[in-house]
Specification:
There is one protein chain. The chain has 1110 residues and is α+β, with helices and mostly antiparallel strands. Among the domains are: 87 residues, no CATH class; 67 residues, no CATH class; 189 residues, no CATH class; 60 residues, Ribbon (Laminin). 15% of the residues lie in helices and 18% in strands. The strands form 19 sheets. Strands 9-10-11-12-13 form a 5-stranded antiparallel beta sheet. Strands 1-2-24-25 form a 4-stranded antiparallel beta sheet. Strand 20 and strand 21 form a beta hairpin. Helix 2 crosses helix 21 and helix 7 packs antiparallel against helix 8. The chain is globular and about 120 Å long. It starts with a helix and ends in a 23-residue tail after the last strand.
Length: 1110
């Protein structure tokens, strides 16, 4: 309506005398709508204020209001078919069977064994996110396994963080409350009294339908399943006791009522008795001869289990007397069919009830008689060991990981810190194979020893060490707590990169000078983040060395990328390319190493000559070719005898090994190495192989092959033997006077340093407070009863008033009059990689139109704008939803597809396309290409797509454009698909649609504002009409692009600040001010204080400092 009004406002000539198009001017703050019929709650003036007030009411109010005024939230697309508590969407394909025949776990294996691409992070539940999102401070995995911070863990119920909470999946051992909140399983079993009672779900979902056993407050179960908490409640289902016989209640219903009275201590108004009286009455009324009464209703915890109390023996706070199993569940290779009821351990159900179906499958006495080998409802006998993932990778599975109950689990769950097998064997057993491999390896913590742990982020700094060396709790076991010293969260990402490095190094042991214990200041991965001085050379490891050290004959880079391995570098990094004289030094390297030892045997362009390690006779160079790949230098593995390839990574006497001689536990300096004959000296000291005393001098050499003696030939600078072994293991001439390896360089460097900076290495965390004053908006919150009611009526939605009637505005994850149902949806997190953006877009904003397609037809879309001036200075993730259609036909298709595994495997009807449009300054919009992502997991209620959108290197190069050799018809334009090599699509021109863009919608000629693109999403066959939508040019918005963003026209930014439009459709934050260096504030209204620092040096000694921070 606002868009239509705007079109009239800007085109007054269109108004006719009898035109009935109008919009009221709402003068009362907080009202809106065509006729001002809607009003915000809590006297709020802005929508964000109303949202904040309602969620703060939940935070500070009585959680039992969720029962007085709220609803139970349900997932209705799939139902278990029971009359009790409905499913939470999180309970679909979570590995826990709740429905008969395990129908809630169809296609579970596709997610459990899913494999991610090489540039992705695999979340614990199997979903994938872009690797750039791993450990960036903000959760992106639905199970939050990509971050160490759990700042939202116990606050989701009063936080409006929709995507983080509404999409949150709980770990398997916890119970989902349906609102992002997770509780322990024993709390779900609210009737248990064996263990201390913990906090309930905020929304009491763990109590619904069994409110009488609430351990913290007495309550009564309503017909809806909600819990009424106020004493003396009169339930209209039950008349006064003296009229009970004239009611239509059955004996079983009366029996249930009486037992609920016992459990709740006569909570309901008409409860007739105390404990003893009720027992006597129940003996007379209840039909069961064994005095057993089921409670809660069968099927509440699981469709297969029923709990029974013997009401004659019930005492206050006692456990159920019996737990029985019946029905069908999926087991490995068969379906377990229990037509009779079986007694199950109650203690196990209380503690590990989420895995109780595994316990049933593991029971041999049941399996023999009750196994249905031909049922379609069963897990694969071999754990799908020969299956492939959607991206055609084999399942990562060890079918024998759980030998007791034979659960099928992903190998990435083995030794990850969480117990997944019923007897914890996946964590306690020592496996022969190391399952922390592939892409997962670089994202898990390995303990730095042979424990073969594969710890997820959850266990870093968790307070309990799972590594024998304590590295998972203390920084390299140094006593510095990981939890306290490394901060990586949404509000403080200072240590995220350092934490990534720490984790990656636990799997890849790679190591200039060692200053700290454990050499942790010279580990390769932290060095990758170093910024070298402009006159320093940066090694391939990231270490910084003096340019003069390159090709001087001594390794200063751990991987020898300053010496022999320099030849591997085909293109200089941007930093190294600026170094003057580097190319000359490269030529020196080529000359120096052209005649290196074993150069006649090895290809020196890719190999290093050395005697091999771990072979019986290193001197037999015919059998043991004395060459290793240059990439193996400095990788932490000894490939050469005496660790010649690990001179800079192996420790000897608290320093680098260098040219020192090592034999078993004995270490000797290089000049003294050949003065003593040992078991291992004959390899490096050929004179020790002399048998007749003619070649026994330290400088004599016995050549390989010919056994010819070369007098005084060792390390004389001239090649005397055929293979050059006389010049092997030789200290360069310019460094022979230095007894300690690289000591002269270290001394010179420290003398010349004016300060030592530890900015790039963590010792202690530094907290920085912002000197700006906070500008939080104080919201006037109504404290009366109506304000409380509004806050709880819409569950996770937001209440507004329509003529004093409550209306709920639901987040995309919910629908219904009271936001009481979960929707089927895709949640999307997208970030544009500006590093890959072509120069042609350097000063141009982009519009991304994200389309959800079903069989190549758009069914939903969302648009966002990439503002270069803003995103160049901060990392922005665009978060939004695409909701599946809930039309009858689409729901039928969803349910059919869920049970059709062949269709799930072979047909992928859904996809998400990110279409990119450049927004020209001359009011133009032009399509430039798209990223296409197939959706494989559309059978799930919720799927998460978290991607970094990167432009390919060939984009902008006309000769590599896939459209060069492909053409589209006259109604369409060829466009490249950026994430699929040599792929393209035909984009329909404005107004055209359908297959091959063969149809045209005439309304598009006048439907959108000038210069906007008219796009047809879908032809509606029911009304035989196309549905146009408009793609707006820069500065315009609305359904037909008549609305304008004009807040910057008034120049609101002070002190020469630059106004940048945010294109926020809500209008609440319509612009931001980019302030000059001296000013800050929302409108650059505040001037920064300046501090002058003067150092009065009274001593000639060098001043050492790490950081000066205000």
């Amino acid at each position: 309506m606002a868009d239509i009004y705007t079109s009239v406002f800007y085109n007054r000539s269109l108004i006719e005398d009898e035109d009935d198009r109008f919009v009221w001017n709402c003068t009362k703050a907080g009202t809106f709508g065509k006729c001002c019929e809607y009003q915000l709650t809590h006297d709020a003036k802005l929508f964000s204020e109303a949202v904040k007030a309602q969620f703060e009411e939940k935070r500070d109010g009585d959680s039992w209001n969720t029962q007085r005024y709220g609803k139970i939230i349900c997932y209705e697309t799939l139902s278990c078919g029971t009359d009790t508590l409905c499913l939470d969407w999180r309970e679909i394909c979570d590995g826990i069977q709740r429905c008969f025949s395990g129908i809630d776990e169809e296609n579970w294996d596709k997610l459990e064994f899913n494999e991610c691409e090489d540039d992705e992070f695999r979340c614990t539940n199997g979903m994938c996110i872009s690797e750039e999102f791993w450990l960036d401070g903000a959760v992106d995995c639905m199970d939050w396994s990509d971050e160490v911070s759990d700042e939202l863990e116990d606050s989701c119920y009063f936080k409006s963080a929709a995507m983080e909470c509404d999409e949150h999946l709980c770990p398997t051992k916890l119970y989902s409350c349906g609102d992002g909140h997770c509780i322990h399983w024993v709390t779900r079993m609210a009737f248990q009294r064996s263990q201390p009672s913990l906090a309930d779900c905020f929304n009491k979902r763990n109590l619904n339908y069994m409110c009488e056993v609430s351990p913290h407050r007495s309550a009564w179960t309503l017909e809806s399943g909600l819990c009424w908490p106020d004493k003396n409640y009169d339930d209209v289902r039950y008349p006064p006791w003296n009229m009970i016989n004239s009611s239509r209640l059955t004996d079983d219903e009366i029996c249930q009522y009486l037992f609920r009275c016992i459990l709740s201590n006569n909570f309901e108004h008409d409860c007739p008795c105390n404990l003893n009286n009720c027992t006597q009455i129940m003996i007379r009324v209840c039909p069961s001869l064994d005095h057993l009464v089921p409670y809660p209703d069968p099927g509440l915890i699981s469709a297969h289990f029923s709990f029974y109390y013997n009401y004659t023996r019930y005492m206050n706070n006692s456990n159920p007397d019996l737990l029985l199993f019946g029905g069908k569940i999926k087991c490995r290779g068969y379906s377990f069919v229990g037509e009779s009821l079986f007694n199950i351990s109650l203690d196990f159900a209380i503690q590990d009830g989420h895995r109780i179906h595994h316990a049933v499958c593991s029971s041999i006495e049941y399996n023999i008689e009750y196994s249905d080998l031909f049922s379609p409802f069963q897990y694969d006998k071999f754990c799908w060991n020969n299956s492939k993932t959607f991206n055609d990778r084999p399942y990562a599975v060890n079918p024998d990981a759980c030998p007791i109950a034979w659960e099928c689990i992903s190998q990435y769950r083995i030794r990850d810190g969480f117990s997944d097998c019923i007897n914890n064997i996946d964590e306690e057993k020592t496996f022969n194979n190391d399952y922390c491999t592939g892409n997962v390896e670089r994202h898990r913590f390995r303990c730095y020893n042979d424990q073969k742990k594969c710890l997820s982020l959850y266990w870093l700094g968790a307070g309990v060490s799972r590594c024998s060396n304590n590295y998972d709790e203390m920084w390299y076991g140094s006593g510095l707590s990981l939890e306290k010293s490394l901060t990586c969260e949404k509000t403080d990402t200072a240590d995220c990169a350092r934490l990534k490095t720490y984790i990656r190094l636990s799997s890849i042991k790679k190591l200039d000078f060692w200053d700290l214990s454990g050499h942790i200041d010279e580990l390769t991965s932290p060095c990758q983040n170093w910024v070298c001085s402009k006159d320093q050379y940066q090694c391939q490891t990231g270490q910084c060395i003096e340019l003069d050290w390159v090709c001087d004959g001594e390794w200063d880079c751990a991987d020898a990328s300053d010496e022999e391995a320099l030849v591997l570098i085909r293109n200089w990094s941007i930093h190294n390319a600026r170094l003057l004289g580097l190319n000359n030094r490269t030529e020196q390297c080529a000359k120096r190493y052209s005649q290196s030892p074993f150069s006649k045997v090895c290809n020196i362009s890719i190999e290093l000559g050395c005697y091999l390690s771990q072979v019986s006779n290193p001197l037999d160079i015919n059998l043991n070719r004395p060459c290793i790949n240059l990439t193996k230098i400095g990788d932490g593995t000894e490939d050469c005898f005496n660790a010649y390839d690990e001179k800079n990574t192996i420790e000897a006497r608290s320093r680098m090994l260098g040219f020192n001689y090592r034999c078993e536990d004995f270490i000797n300096l290089h000049p003294l190495a050949c003065q003593r004959i040992t078991n291992c000296s004959k390899v490096l000291c050929s004179n020790h192989r002399d048998q007749d005393g003619l070649c026994s001098d330290d400088k004599d050499v016995i050549c390989l092959g010919s056994n010819e003696c070369k007098k005084k030939a060792k390390c004389n600078g001239t090649v005397d033997c055929e293979y050059g072994e006389d010049e092997y293991w030789c200290i360069p001439e310019s460094f022979k006077s230095h007894v300690v390896y690289r000591s002269a360089k270290e001394t010179t460097l420290r003398q010349n340093s004016q300060f030592i900076s530890t900015e790039r290495f963590p010792i202690f965390p530094i907290s920085v407070s912002d000197q700006r004053e906070s500008e939080n908006v104080i919201i006037k919150s109504t404290t009366g009863p109506f304000g409380t009611i509004y806050s709880y009526q819409c569950n996770r939605g937001v209440a507004i008033l329509e003529r004093n009637e409550t209306r709920c505005l639901c987040p995309p994850a919910y629908y219904g009059d009271w936001c009481e149902f979960f929707s089927d949806r895709i949640s999307i997190i997208a970030h544009i990689d500006h590093k890959t953006m072509p120069k042609i877009f350097e000063n141009i904003n982009l519009k991304i139109r994200t389309n959800l397609l079903f069989d190549n037809e758009t069914i939903k879309h969302h648009e966002f704008i990439v503002i270069r001036s803003i995103e160049n200075t901060r990392k922005i993730k665009h978060k939004f939803y695409l909701v599946y259609s809930r039309s009858h036909d689409m729901l039928v298709h969803k349910r059919w597809r869920y049970f059709n595994q062949a269709d799930v495997l072979n047909h992928h009807p859904y996809s998400v396309h990110f279409d990119v449009f450049s927004l020209g300054k001359n009011n133009t919009i032009k399509e430039v290409g798209s990223w296409h992502y197939p959706i494989y997991f559309d059978y799930l209620p919720a799927f998460h797509l978290a991607v970094v959108l990167k432009f390919p290197p060939w984009f902008g190069n006309a000769t590599l454009d896939p459209c060069l050799e492909n053409s589209c018809n006259n109604n369409s334009t060829c466009m490249p698909v950026f994430n699929q090599n040599h792929s393209y699509y035909c984009s329909c021109k404005s107004g055209y649609y359908g297959k091959d863009c063969s149809w045209y919608e005439p309304r598009c000629e006048h439907y959108c504002a000038d210069n906007a693109l008219c796009h047809i999403d879908k032809y509606d066959s029911h009304i035989r009409k196309a549905n146009p939508s408009c793609l707006c040019t820069m500065g315009r918005f609305g359904a037909r692009c008549y609305l304008k963003y004009d807040d910057c026209d008034s120049n609101p930014c002070l002190n020469n600040g630059t106004c940048l439009s945010t294109y926020d459709r809500s209008g609440e934050v319509s612009y931001i001010c980019n302030c000059s260096v001296q000013f800050y504030g929302n409108e650059c209204q505040n001037e920064k204080a300046s501090v002058n620092v003067a150092l009065n040096m009274t001593s000639e000694l060098a001043a050492l400092a790490t950081v000066v921070q205000l």
